[in-house]
Structure formats: structure tokens, C-alpha cells
Amino acid sequence: MMDILQRRTFGRKTVRLSKSQEKLLGSVLPDLEIPFCEDKIDLSRYFAESGPLHLEIGFGDGEYTAALSERFPEHRIIGCEVFKNGIAALLKLIESKSLKNIRILQKDAVIALNHMFNKETFDYIHLNHPDPWPKKRHHKRRIIQSDTVALFESALKQGGELLISTDICEYYSWILEHMEELKLLKRMPVSGRFLDSFNKERIVTRFERKGNENGRETRYLRYKKVSFS
Ligand SMILES: C[S@@+](CC[C@H](N)C(=O)[O-])C[C@H]1O[C@@H](n2cnc3c(N)ncnc32)[C@H](O)[C@@H]1O
Question: Which of 3, 108, 123, 131 is catalytic?
Fold first, then answer.
């Protein structure tokens, strides 16, 4: 297995940015960005509030991030994405909706988690529709692997939750197998769109709706960090 820090889990590349996207990246991002660094960071430098802390990995166009922020203005949300067009899309939502509780990490989440955050930092980690890498020879690029699950577990607080969605049946089985084999986190019930104690009704993005319209049913997984002793 390739080293955790060498594995590239994303495929999309930034396509040409429009003038307005460039403007958002140049003028709005600097105030909201948590710049990548190789040392542990002090989160109080980036958030004045102290509410529950979320990490969303691979937010795409940021629709879920923005909806989460509107739903829980007192929570702190870190959105992590490598795709510049997606970051610009989230910045647009932040501006138009005057969202105050989102900070942006423009980095591979696996690398950022390895370096920047102390153990037991996050209340929630969200992984919505991670890239499925359907070809067998690409399975090693999937973000769910034994070492990354251990990384997510370590980054969660006691009682914290890892929330995953996918509309790819085979990837769903892959995730179940890895989680079951490792037994680091406890599987919790998910009924329909009711995900967890705080997110009463699932936020459904355009990406998710499109998949569903094309006959791909979204499946949700919820894991909690509990002491197994
Ligand atoms: C299939 S898209 C899903 C986007 C969004 N979560 C949604 O549900 O609409 C997966 C996203 O994850 C991002 N991604 C993949 N690996 C990542 C990583 N290691 N760190 C940060 N973002 C990542 C990709 O750039 C892409 O935007």
C-alpha cells in the first residue's frame, strides 16, 4: 500500500477560472482561509466562537457546507477542498448568504489531518460522495482505506461522528468492509434521511439529486467514536 501522504484521492483538476471566481479567490478567501502548515494550529486564531467543530472533506461546490452553516450558525465549520472552482463556488455562497462560521482549507485533507490538527479535535467529519475510483487498479486511491480511517478516528473527539454518503453500491460495500474489519468506530443507525442527533434532516445537494434522478440511490453511513471497553 502506497504511503498515506503520497496517495492522491482526487481526480478533478481546476478548470479555467472566470474573472469573478478569481476575484473571490483573491479578495474573500484570504480572510477565511486556514493556510496549510506542517505544524499544529491554534483554532482560536480562526474562530472566535467555541461551538461544535465540523470538518467537511471534499465539499465540491460547497452546497452542503453552506446549508450546514445556515442550519447551525453557532457551530464551527472547516471545509476542505483541493478544487479551486469549488472553493470559488463556496465563497460565492458565503458572500451571498452572509455566512460567518465557515473557514476554508485548500489542501488534501489527508495531509492536512496528518499535520495540522491535534488528536480528538473534531465533533463531526463529513465525507459526502467521496470519489469512487471505480476501476480496480484505482481502488488504492479511494479515501477510505485502513490508514485513513485510523486518521479520521484519531481526529474525532470522544463521541464524535464520521458521516459518509455514497451512491455507488460497490463503494458502499468497500466502506462497510473496511469499517467492520477495523472496528475503530461504532456503526450507528441511520434511518432514511435522518442522519444523527443534530442533522435532523439530510441536506441534499444538486450532485446527490442528480445521482438519484439517474437511478443511483444514496446510502448513508454514520460512525461514532465510543470507548469499546
Ligand atoms: C465526487 S466529489 C463530491 C463533492 C461534494 N462532497 C458533493 O457531495 O457534492 C468529491 C470531491 O472531493 C474532493 N476531494 C477528493 N479527495 C480529497 C482530499 N483528499 N482532500 C480534499 N478534497 C478531496 C474532490 O476534489 C471533489 O471535489
Answer: 131
CA of 166 to the centre of ligand 1 (A): 12
pLDDT digits (tens, 9 = 90+) for 188-224: 988 644 455 555 677 888 888 898 899 999 999 999 9
Task: Give the residue, by CA position, lying nearest to ligand 1 atom 1.
Answer: 131
Predicted structure pTM score = 0.95
- Give a yes or no: residue 79 inside a domain: yes
Q: Is residue 17 part of a domain?
A: no
Whether 35 is covered by a domain: the verdict is: no
Kindly report the CATH number assigned to the domain that includes residue 135: 3.40.50.150
Q: How confident is the model at residue 112 (pLDDT cuts 50, 70, 90)?
A: very high
DSSP the chain: ---TTT-------PPPPPHHHHHHHHHTHHHHB----SS---GGGT-S--S-EEEEE--TTSHHHHHHHHH-TTSEEEEE---HHHHHHHHHHHHHHT--SEEEE-S-HHHHHHHT--SS-EEEEEEES-----SGGGGGG-S-SHHHHHHHHHHEEEEEEEEEEES-HHHHHHHHHHHHHH--SEEE--BTTB-SSS--S----HHHHHHHHTT---EEEEEE-----
The number of domains in the chain is 1
